[in-house]
Design brief:
This protein is mainly α. The protein has seven helices and no strands. The N terminus is likely disordered.
Length: about 200
């Protein structure tokens, strides 16, 4: 009887593995190597393909959460994979753009700030999860993500976009710096919120 009850409890969770919101998240993760491949392809056509894939992946970032809420298909797997997919997409794109020298010089610091913050916050989030503490995402953090996505979009077009609009890369770099500054503040805000929980932990 206990085995039957265990099966009945797990069955809905297994069904959620292939729910549309989770499939969209899987697709965003699978898009990461494709975008990187197109960026390092070197030709303008590949840059436009990379941008198109990136835009589609960014749209799924909104859709998966929205659909999960309205269809009541939220799952532990989805909550875990969604931020991982976001960080993979942003980090991989930044590294590819650095490799292709679309981001270079002083702008490397902006990319480093963003990458460092994502790594540090991910580590803190894992630690807080062990304490069963969840720090909610602030509105400014959501704007930070939006700024990162828009700046990366301009930079993915990069040289290909400059052919049609001379300031494409420049706009991307300016937005990258703005998002880096917002990233610094939101990182500080997250650590400040988490610090109280860390200090309260029993030795």
């Amino acid at each position: 009887m206990s085995e039957l009850r265990t099966f009945d409890v797990r069955r809905p969770q297994r069904a959620l593995l292939l729910s549309l919101p989770n499939i969209l998240t899987y697709g965003r993760i699978l898009a990461v190597p494709l975008v990187v491949f197109c960026v390092v392809g070197g030709k303008d056509t590949w840059r436009w393909i990379a941008l198109a894939l990136f835009i589609l992946a960014s749209i799924t970032d909104y859709l998966d959460g929205y659909l999960a809420r309205i269809w009541k298909q939220q799952s532990s797997l989805g909550r875990m994979l969604d931020p991982i997919a976001d960080k993979l997409l942003v980090s991989a794109c930044l590294l590819a753009l650095v490799f292709e020298r679309t981001i270079d010089g002083l702008s490397l610091w902006a990319a480093l700030i963003i990458l460092s913050r994502e790594i540090l916050v991910s580590g803190l989030r894992e630690y807080l999860a062990e304490l069963r503490v969840s720090v909610p995402v602030s509105r400014l953090a959501k704007w930070k993500t939006a700024l990162q996505m828009v700046s990366i979009g301009f930079l993915l077009a990069g040289p290909a976009g400059d052919v049609h609009f001379a300031y494409t890369t420049l706009i991307g770099i300016v937005l990258l710096w703005i998002s880096a500054l917002v990233t610094l503040y939101t990182g500080y805000d997250y650590f400040r919120a988490g610090l109280g929980h860390i200090l309260e932990e029993e030795p």
